[in-house]
Design a protein that fits this description.
By secondary structure, this protein is α/β, with parallel strands linked by helices. The chain is built from nine helices and 13 strands. The protein is elongated.
């Protein structure tokens, strides 16, 4: 079962913006497949890249710190192998707070390969997200039942992103769960309009994960979607997701606002 990470109120519905012209995005409706992306594909260069503060730890803790880092980077190595490697590095004097910082690139490269993230939001009417993530309002938006997302077997966490003006401090000897939350669920506060939630999978093998059919709650059509594509999407929904609600998004007549109205 997916674990709720952190103390926050979970909205009843979480949304995902998609581009109908992208065949992989259509798989979300065709096959109920969600793609858990690598952090390296994100449009924010700091996303999941908050540095670990090795530089503020005393020299005597270097071995324990390096052990923790090596364990994260090489999960298949044995405890004795990692511990002996850490001791060897300290004895030979080849590691220091400065050298730890150099290892950030390797750590983040490893994180990019093993971490999968499926981003969601509690807003279905944000103008910028419709523009950025739904092909300039010509795509669609899927609403998910949050309680059903927590029932997914092969996903680790569902958490809420925190927004900050400065990097949160991540200590190598800190609480592992708290460090993970700071690392994966922290973004610059300029992104706060997205009000993002994330499903995460660590040590991911297959980035395509099937979601339960009961999780699909509603579909919203972008106002720029052409008539032919609208018909295709509605036919697909009526065939694959019988009974879920279908809405459309439209610009408000006299305000900077997107209105969502039901069409069936």
């Amino acid at each position: 079962m997916t674990k709720k990470l952190g103390d926050f109120k979970l909205p009843d519905t979480l949304y995902k913006f998609r581009d109908w012209n992208n065949k992989y995005h259509r798989e979300l409706l065709h096959k109920q497949i969600a793609f858990f992306a690598s952090p390296k594909s994100f449009n924010d260069p700091f996303d999941c890249k908050i540095p670990i503060r090795y530089d503020i730890e005393p020299e005597r803790q270097l071995e324990d710190i390096y052990y923790s880092v090596a364990k994260a980077c090489y999960p298949n190595a044995s405890v004795d192998e990692i511990r002996n490697f850490a001791k060897k590095q300290v004895i030979e004097g080849s590691i220091s707070p400065t050298s730890f910082k150099k290892n950030d690139s390797e750590y983040f490269k490893n994180l990019d390969s093993r971490m999968g993230i499926f981003s969601l939001t509690q807003h279905n009417d944000d103008i910028l997200m419709w523009g950025h993530y739904a092909n300039a309002h010509s795509g669609f938006c899927v609403g998910f039942d949050s309680s059903e997302l927590l029932k997914i077997e092969n996903v680790d966490y569902l958490g809420k992103v925190g927004y900050h003006s400065d990097f949160p401090t991540i200590l190598p000897k800190g609480n592992l769960t708290e460090n993970f939350e700071k690392q994966i669920f922290s973004k610059w506060d300029k992104w706060s309009y997205e009000d993002e939630f994330r499903l995460t999978k660590n040590h991911i093998d297959d980035r395509k994960i099937m979601l339960p059919k009961k999780a699909f709650k509603e579909i919203i059509l972008g106002y720029n979607m052409n008539l032919t594509e609208r018909r295709k999407l509605i036919q697909l929904v009526n065939k694959k997701h019988i009974g879920i609600k279908i809405y459309e998004a439209k610009p408000h007549k006299d305000r900077f606002k997107i209105e969502i109205s039901r069409i069936n």
